[in-house]
Amino acid sequence: MRTERAELPFSWYFLAAAAVSLITSAIHVLAGTPEIMAPLLASTLPPVVKGVFYVMWHQITALLLLGSGASLVAAARPAWRLPVAVLIGGQFALISVLFLTLGAMWFSSPWPMPQWVLFGAMTVLLLIGYRRGAA
Questions:
Q1: 52 and 102 in contact (C-beta within 8 Å)?
Q2: Which of 24, 53, 54, 103 is packed most tightly, with the most Cβ within 10 A?
């Protein structure tokens, strides 16, 4: 027999996920751009390759900002929690797995590319937030 559960009005887990996503986007732009994109753009790669990399770099920035905004809205709106947990959390989980897998393949270690920790943390916060969002 299914019983209806009352939704909690505010989720600190979704708020924390939004904050981690916003901080991650700042790290990505402020620290990552000089470390990764500056050398790439200064390289002798063809302009179209540089352009595609540049777009992809800022696609990640947009993804992080969208995740932060959606998580913030979901913190205050219970109806948003499941879609955000599944879509944004699922996307962040896949990115985390990519970093872990490619880190293992390229470097035999997950630590040269530790971004998986932040993406994993955002995923966990969103999932806990959804699970604990109903009383």
A1: no
A2: 24
d(CA 87, CA 11): 17
Backbone angles phi, psi at 134, to 5 degrees: -115, 135
Q: Which one-letter DSSP state was computed for residue 28?
A: I
Chain mean position to CA 105: 22
Question: What is the pLDDT tens value at each position of the chain, 135 positions in all?
Answer: 554 555 678 999 999 999 999 999 999 999 999 999 999 999 999 999 999 999 999 999 999 999 999 999 999 999 999 999 999 999 999 999 999 999 999 999 999 999 999 999 999 999 999 998 753
Whole-number Cα distances in Å, 67 to 13, 73, 86, 107: 13, 10, 12, 29
CA atoms within 13 A on the CB side of 31: 7
Report in angstroms the alpha-carbon separations of 99 from 5, 45, 86, 114, 119: 37, 24, 20, 8, 9
